[in-house]
Amino acid sequence: MDAVKTRRPNILAELGFTHGFSIAVILVIALALQSTLLARVTILGVIPQILLVVIVSLAYLRGERIGIVCGFFGGLMQDLLLTDSIVGLYAMVYLLIGFAAGSFRKYAPAESVWMPVFVVAAASAVAEISYATLNIIMGQRWVSLIFTLKVASLVVLYNTLLTPFVFPLVRRIADRFSPEKVHRW
Amino acid sequence: MLLVFLTLCVVLITLDFRSDDGGILEGAKDVTAAVVEPVQRGFTAIFRPIGNIFSSIGELGSLRSENKELRAELAILRERSTQAEGVLDENAHLRELVELDEPWAAMDRVAAEITSKVPSNYQWAYTIGKGAADGIEEDMTVVNADGLVGKIFDVQENSATVLLLIDPRGAAGAKLEGKRYSGTISGNGADEPLSLEFIGVDIPVEPGDIVQTSYLGGSIFPPNIPIGFVSTVEGDSANPEQRVEVQPDVDFTRLDFVYVLLESGPNLEDSK
Fold first, then answer.
1. Fewer CB within 10 Å, N or C, chain B?
2. Chain B residues 58-87 within an 8 A CB cutoff of chain A
3. Residue A182 forms part of a structural domain
């Protein structure tokens, strides 16, 4: 993890130590929430992917480079917590999502309230479907197609509902530790 | 930059495919678990009461009458338990005489608290707060008061992962209570019934039949642990495509504590 970062000093410089550390903490907390509290408060047995909501929020706020880094390390952590699944799949899906959400920022109206919600909804749908597809292609034992679609649509719904709470929180934390001062008025 | 990280992912996936067991990824998994687990434990401790409040708000009215009923039931159960102790002693003695395997209910066990769930919607596994330090080994049987929960999948020093019976990656040898037909039972995910496939055709299975674990079918579980009951039978019994669905006894969405049977798993293999 460190080896990769030191080879590209520009992204490390862009992040800054405190900023990078605070982002790592946010990702760990999101993952821990997803496996404890949110694993109990489910919608029809489906857990929301709050980690993805956080990654998309960070990417949307900070651009595609941060999106790639957060997506990769966040996804990798989730991969490593799973049992007997292919390591690297979530990392790959989430880094592409982070890249896409970060790139999309340029085309979105700056202070739109609805845009983050829309981006998270679209990102969740793409992430769920592509993760399932990749697993099936790679010959993993998988649940039925109907079950997958049920889970995917509920994740989209739940993630979308969480965004109005998660996004402002992530924005406040990201602003506080941001290397360049952001002025809001 | 995107390409660099994408290549890294492909390398990881390849590494994972190449190495069957252990290696760098195993180490990375341990490190991740070590970082995230303290946070998970903290959250579990903080949020358990909140979760319980959510589920108990609707039950406030019925609590008093339920309390009275439970007290009455407790008195009956106390009496039965005294009788049962004598029978268990006698049973153990007789089993020793005829050299039968120990029944699962009498096996040494470790109670463990569930600390977290695997953060995925396609995997049904829980982390428990006991591990190798408490004598837990891979493939040991996990039960609760209602019946079979699953098996130990992965062990760390102070934690372990339990693969639940409802996970499609697991399967158990099963039989119908009182009838001598065996098959395998496998999961279909949360809130879905289990599927039971028999060895052989023309089996007179009916809704309501009780399903338990069995030795046959290469099962790692000790026999006679309750699994559930047959809820629906689809198709003709002469048809090999017959579909039998089983409703599990254990409520997998509301697990807080489980028991690990210490004499099952590898130790059971030895004694066979």
1. C
2. none
3. no
ipTM of the complex: 0.76
**B79: pLDDT strictly greater than 80:** yes
Separation of alpha carbons A129 and B73, rounded Å = 50
Q: Give the CATH number for residue A86.
A: 1.10.1760
Average pLDDT over residues B23-50: 82
The CA distance from A80 to the nearest CA of chain B, in Å, is 5
Question: Is the CB of residue B228 less than 8 Å from the CB of residue B195?
Answer: no
Name residues 115-154 of chain B within 8 A of A (Cβ): 115-123, 125, 127, 153-154
Let me know if residue A57 belongs to a domain: yes
Q: How confident is the model at residue B156 (pLDDT cuts 50, 70, 90)?
A: confident
- How far B49 CA sits from the closest chain A CA (Å)? 11
Closest alpha carbon within chain A to B154: A83
Residues in chain A: 185
Buried b (16+ CB within 10 A) or exposed e, A78-103: bbbbbbebbbbbbbbbbbbbbbbbbe
What share of chain A in percent tops pLDDT 70? 86
In a domain, A185, yes or no: no
CATH architecture of B171-253: Beta Barrel (2.40)
* Domain count of the fold of chain A: 1
Domain extent, residue A39, equals 2-176
Percent of chain B with pLDDT over 70: 85
